[in-house]
Backbone:
């Protein structure tokens, strides 16, 4: 017989490059919810002393600089090589998954009403299946481009390459349970997130443990 216990509701937060996902994640933290930053965890395991450094050096020699993974060198090796990319994902994804499970256990112990999985490639990796509901942040394409191109070292070519790897914004919006606009100012974004939490967290629910 399965035991049942109340767990945090799991919110999957995602959005294409330049859509304001980091801003939305910060707002959810301000609302008191724990947020697991998947991309931040990737950076951590690739930093000096990180668990991914040694296996990445073994798989992709010459991509380590000063004890850390040189993401530019690594990206040049795997970006246009699907087989190499899968090899890299086989190293990094299990490490990130382990950290995420520990994060969710902490949220359960602390009796948080919800926990956020901030995952750039949520739909691309099937991660929405492990969420109670999904939130996509979205802005018009011209605002997205302006945000990205304002970043140091950004280029239109690189933006288009990243867009080609990501599920189109229109598709994400159709697949999402909630769409939060980020192109009309932070106040509207914050208000939409608050409304979402108020409506959805008022519906008590349990998940199988």
Residues:
């Amino acid at each position: 017989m399965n035991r049942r216990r109340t767990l945090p509701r799991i919110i999957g937060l995602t959005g294409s490059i330049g859509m304001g996902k980091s801003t939305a994640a910060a707002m959810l933290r301000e609302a008191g919810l724990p947020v697991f930053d998947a991309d931040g965890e990737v950076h951590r395991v690739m930093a000096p002393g990180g668990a991914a450094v040694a296996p990445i050096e073994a798989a992709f020699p010459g991509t380590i600089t000063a004890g850390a993974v040189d993401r530019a060198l690594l990206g040049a090796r795997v970006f246009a090589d699907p087989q190499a990319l899968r090899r890299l994902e086989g190293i990094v994804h299990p490490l990130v998954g382990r950290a995420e499970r520990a994060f969710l256990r902490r949220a359960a112990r602390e009796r948080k009403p919800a926990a956020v999985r901030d995952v750039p490639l949520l739909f691309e990796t099937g991660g929405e299946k492990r969420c109670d509901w999904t939130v996509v942040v979205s802005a018009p394409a011209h605002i997205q481009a302006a945000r990205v191109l304002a970043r140091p070292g950004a280029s239109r070519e690189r933006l288009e390459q990243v867009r080609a790897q990501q599920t189109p914004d229109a598709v994400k919006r159709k697949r999402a349970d909630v769409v939060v606009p980020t192109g009309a100012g932070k106040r509207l974004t914050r208000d939409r997130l608050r409304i979402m939490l108020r409506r959805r967290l008022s519906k008590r629910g349990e998940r199988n443990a």
In short: The chain is about 50% helix and 15% strand. The first strand starts at residue 4 and ends at 5. Residues 1-5, 205-209 have pLDDT under 50 and may be disordered. Strands lie at 4-5, 9-14, 35-37, 64-65, 68-69, 114-118, 133-138, 178-181, 207-208.
